[in-house]
Structures are given as C-alpha cells and as structure tokens.
C-alpha cells in the first residue's frame, strides 16, 4: 500500500470492514419479474463483484408490491424473494466485496413505466402485455408531475403499515446475507416525499412543521435499527436538497442527519433532487463533477456522522481528493461503474498500488499479465 492513498484504506462500520472506500452505488435496472431476481441481475452484479470495489449495492428494492417504481423493480415483500437475493449477496461476497442492499418505497412515483422505456404512465398496450397498474400512495394527493398518476393520501394506519414493511424487508435482506442495509429517503420516493413540503401538505402529525414531516422517516429508521443486529451497519440515502424554491434544503438535511445519527444510523449517503421531473430546468442546479460533494462535507463536518459522496465522480484523482480533504468517508460511483466495472482495479494501478495485474481475479490476471509481457517484448499480443 502506497502511503497516504486513502481510497484503498480499510474502513469499518460496526462489524463490517470494507477493504477500500470505493462503493458501487445502487442503480435501478428495472429488470425484475414480480420483484424476483432474473438472470440479468446475476450477470450485472457479477461484473461489479469482480471489479475491486469494497462495497457493492444492490439497487432499490421495494418493501411492498405497490411500492415498486415500475413492474421491473426488485422486491423483498415476501419470503420467496429471499432466494434470488441470496444468490446476489453470495455472488458479490465471493469476490471479496461486501454486499449491501437499498430498500425503499416508490410513493407517488410508483406504478410507472420502466425508466429505459420512458417513465410516464403505463399505456393500454403495456397493460395488454401483462404489466400491472395500480394507484400509488403518498403523503398527499399531489402528482409528481404532469402525466403521472395522482396518489392517494395515506391514512395513519397505512403509514404504520409502511414502517412494518420496511422492518420485514430488512429482516429478509439479512436472511439473504447482505452485510449492510440502506434506507432510501431520497429522490422523491415515499420517505423523501414525506420530508419535502413540495409533496407533503398534510395537517396531521405527519405534516406541516419540519418535526412532523420527519416523523415517518425517523420512525422507519428507529424500527429498522431496533429490528436488525447491533453488528449490522445501517446507511440512509437522502436528497440533501430539492434544488427547488420552497422545497427541502441542506439546512433541513442537517437537522435530519443529526436525528438519524441519534437513531443509530451509521452513514448518510448524500444525493440530491428527485422532486423535479427529468428534463425540467432549475436555476439552482448546475451539474458537474462532484456537484453534490459539498452536501457530504457539510453533514460530516457539522453533524459528526460518516458520509458518502456521490455525483459525477469519474477519476481516481477526484475520488482521492474527496477523501483527503475529509469531504466524505466513502465515494459512491454509479454510471462510471457501468462504463468501467473494473474502475477500482484500474484506480489501484493508476496509483501504483498494484503491478502485473495483482489484485485482479486470478483467472483474469494470469492472462492479462502474459498479454502485457508479450506487448513489452514486441511479440504479437495473445489472442
């Protein structure tokens, strides 16, 4: 290990030690059938498992059938779904990474078309070929955007049922063998929609003042923390700001982070947005490399809780700088990992931490080493 490179230093959360600070971020693939793992998922996560990251997240997984964002979302609302998830967790851990899962509920963004088919409301053709449509639920009867269904405002009994659903899904995730659980409180989905005044206009104990709007997310965090072993780390992904005037702000997130820390949450995964329809414009939002890192830095510094940085982090130098400047404890990469599933191994080579393809899967490293030697000797590269 080259002295001072933090990206490849171990980090421990409770009983789970990560071999490095590189995380494959949860990314929805919308390719499940009735919530069940399909062959695509095995191929998809196998790449990341072999790629050298310390932690690999399985995408947002619905805690109820009607909490699915689309018909293609993975689920853990019934015991029969554990087996497929166990395959994914075992696969990830077989290659030396730790396995994490993000559990959530789509809220008012549920029952939509799969993202790669355009989002939006399901058509008559979709229904004719077997897709299921239902009325989504949210804090208030406010649609996410034009062309999206208007959700039914949840009763207090329904809200209590959601808490139980998160607990049940978390327990199933542990039975499947996941090392870390993350609660999805971001991107306009159910828990975040209770937080933001853009979606929550309730007048009961779950709406109005910030304290009330935080009530359900905190109840979920408290219940899940109590239901899982002390040794299991609990992460939370938040939208640090809505990027919309009158919406959720970083100042609100600081308050929430402090309360989540008090409930036993171990890390805040700092994303943003999600309450603005894709393609809309907002003068406060300017995307660029590391555009969300400041949120991780502030929450870490001001609330004393570990954070994960996300947002167009592409190069090893940028990821390392985030850690060196104490902006975050982990670096989450999403689309960059789709482009290069071996990003972590390439980063180790970039920093001179490995040579001759050390650290790669033996089955790959042996061939790559021979190929590199042939190139150095001026021979024809091996085919």
UniProtKB/TrEMBL annotation:
<dbReference type="InterPro" id="IPR044152">
    <property type="entry name" value="YqjM-like"/>
</dbReference>
<dbReference type="GO" id="GO:0010181">
    <property type="term" value="F:FMN binding"/>
</dbReference>
<keyword id="KW-0560">Oxidoreductase</keyword>
<keyword id="KW-0288">FMN</keyword>
<feature type="domain" description="NADH:flavin oxidoreductase/NADH oxidase N-terminal">
    <location>
        <begin position="6"/>
        <end position="350"/>
    </location>
</feature>
<protein>
    <submittedName>
        <fullName>2,4-dienoyl-CoA reductase</fullName>
    </submittedName>
</protein>
<dbReference type="InterPro" id="IPR001155">
    <property type="entry name" value="OxRdtase_FMN_N"/>
</dbReference>
<dbReference type="GO" id="GO:0003959">
    <property type="term" value="F:NADPH dehydrogenase activity"/>
</dbReference>
<dbReference type="Pfam" id="PF00724">
    <property type="entry name" value="Oxidored_FMN"/>
</dbReference>
<dbReference type="GO" id="GO:0050661">
    <property type="term" value="F:NADP binding"/>
</dbReference>
<dbReference type="InterPro" id="IPR013785">
    <property type="entry name" value="Aldolase_TIM"/>
</dbReference>
<keyword id="KW-0521">NADP</keyword>
<keyword id="KW-0285">Flavoprotein</keyword>
């Amino acid at each position: 290990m080259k002295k001072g490179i933090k990206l490849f230093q171990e980090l421990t959360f409770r009983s789970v030690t990560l071999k490095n600070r590189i995380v494959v971020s949860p990314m929805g693939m919308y390719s499940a059938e009735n919530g069940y793992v399909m062959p695509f998922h095995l191929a998809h996560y196998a790449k990341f498992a072999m790629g050298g990251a310390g932690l690999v997240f399985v995408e947002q997984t619905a805690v109820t059938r009607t909490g699915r964002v689309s018909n293609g979302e993975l689920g853990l609302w019934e015991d029969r779904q554990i087996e497929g998830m166990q395959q994914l967790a075992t696969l990830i851990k077989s290659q030396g990474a730790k396995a994490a899962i993000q559990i959530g509920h789509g809220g008012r963004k549920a029952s939509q078309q799969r993202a790669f088919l355009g989002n939006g409301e399901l058509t008559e053709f979709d229904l004719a070929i077997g897709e299921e449509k239902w009325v989504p639920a949210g804090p208030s009867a406010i649609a996410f955007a034009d062309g999206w269904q208007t959700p039914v405002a949840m009763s207090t009994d329904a809200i209590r049922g959601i808490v139980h659903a998160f607990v049940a899904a978390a327990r199933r995730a542990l039975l499947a063998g996941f090392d870390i659980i993350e609660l999805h409180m971001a991107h306009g989905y159910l828990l975040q929609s209770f937080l933001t005044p853009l979606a929550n206009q309730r007048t009961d104990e779950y709406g109005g003042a910030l304290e009330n709007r935080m009530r359900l997310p905190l109840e979920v965090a408290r219940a899940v923390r109590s239901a899982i072993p002390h040794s299991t780390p609990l992460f939370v992904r938040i939208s640090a700001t809505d990027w919309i005037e009158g919406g959720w702000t970083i100042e609100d997130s600081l308050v929430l982070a402090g309360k989540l820390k008090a409930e036993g949450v171990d890390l805040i995964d700092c994303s943003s947005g999600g309450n603005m329809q894709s393609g809309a414009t907002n003068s406060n939002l300017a995307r660029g490399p590391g555009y969300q890192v400041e949120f991780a830095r502030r929450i870490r510094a001001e609330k004393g809780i570990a954070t994960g940085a996300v947002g167009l982090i592409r190069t090893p130098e940028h990821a390392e700088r985030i850690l060196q400047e104490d902006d975050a404890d982990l670096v989450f990469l999403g689309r960059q990992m789709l482009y290069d599933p071996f990003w972590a191994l390439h980063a180790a080579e970039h920093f001179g931490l490995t040579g001759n393809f050390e650290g790669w899967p033996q089955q790959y490293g042996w061939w790559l080493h021979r190929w590199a030697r042939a190139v150095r000797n001026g021979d024809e590269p091996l085919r």
